[in-house]
Amino acid sequence: MITKADRLNDVKEYYFSKKLREVAALRNEGKPVINIAIGSPDLNPPKSVINAIKTAVDIPNAHQYQSYQGIPELREGISNFYKDKYKVILNANSEILPLMGSKEGIMHISLAFLNKGDKVLIPNPGYPTYASVTNLVEAESILYNLNDANNWLPNFEELEKEDLKNVKIMWINYPHMPTGAVASKEDFKQLITFAKKHQILIVNDNPYSFILNEKPLSILEVEGAKEVAIELNSLSKTFNMAGWRVGMVVGDAEIIKTILQVKSNMDSGMFYGIQKGAVEAFKLSKDWFKSQNEIYEERRSLVWEIFDSLNCTYNKNIGGLFVWAKLPEGIKSEEITDELLYTKNVFITPGTIFGSNGEGYIRASLCVDKNVLTEVLNRLTTVKI
Ligand SMILES: Cc1ncc(COP(=O)(O)O)c(C=O)c1O
User: Could you say which protein family the record assigns here (predicted)?
Assistant: First the structure.
């Protein structure tokens, strides 16, 4: 018997990887399951992006290995995008590393900076990958509480009470997934002050900046932020390119070089056509963002109605691709999501997959056509909880 590595002892298969098998099995039995759980944009990428990848496949050398740091044109595109959208100046040669989706960056950053036993501050609730990757690299997670009362922002008084001596990385993610909470520049300033005081690398995971968010912000807008903070960003949600796998990590040149030290040993560059598509995406005008957000706004109103029918409450002043809703007192997240799956054929995400502070909440995605959301509403109006 070949035994698996000890590092897997505390790592479970990703919730959606497992649950989607169950959803597929139910569909095979003929159950018409509607999935409003996952944040995988159903809308198309822009036409110019699709044309760029089509044209790229006929270009000589397009099928060879590509640069470990991405083609210069892509890094220039990212640099211009950061200047235009966030007023952040990034050196395209040294402060930008394109990634195959921001998710892989979580592993690269962890491998680059964490030794066995180092501590990592992880939001609860938060994107589950931060904790799984921390386990995989045999570092130690310290979950920090986010809650409604604090607008899902870090509570510094509570954080200061932790033993922060061996903390090396703090993951933050604003606009926050799953709650949609948005951080202000003042909030980011406080985080940078905290990171400088304790010499912690803050990583802001920022894939939802442009979805239903009037004022996209980068943590790097804070003066002096580059000393202690880097940022992950992604084309997955902003340009409906989740399956393309393209994102980036940006920040101080030395930090980026250290991440490249890991990444250049793990892959051999990103497909040329994908990079050319990404270059086009960064050139899009304001109209793109406006058109996407109009669709998401309409869908969000329907999701609010869905949650009203379940007697849930929710904050309307949030950003991102999801609606996060509080269940009526005493109702458990996984009980209700399983009940809805088995009795109404509607798959919604239980808040608990994002951490214990997600108990009592559920999350719905806006990546679902309005007609489908209307069908969900019809199905649910016959169930009251
Ligand atoms: C908070 C957060 N970070 C990162 C990712 C991964 O995005 P990407 O597609 O760029 O890997 C997601 C995807 O759902 C996410 O919600």
Answer: Belongs to the class-I pyridoxal-phosphate-dependent aminotransferase family.
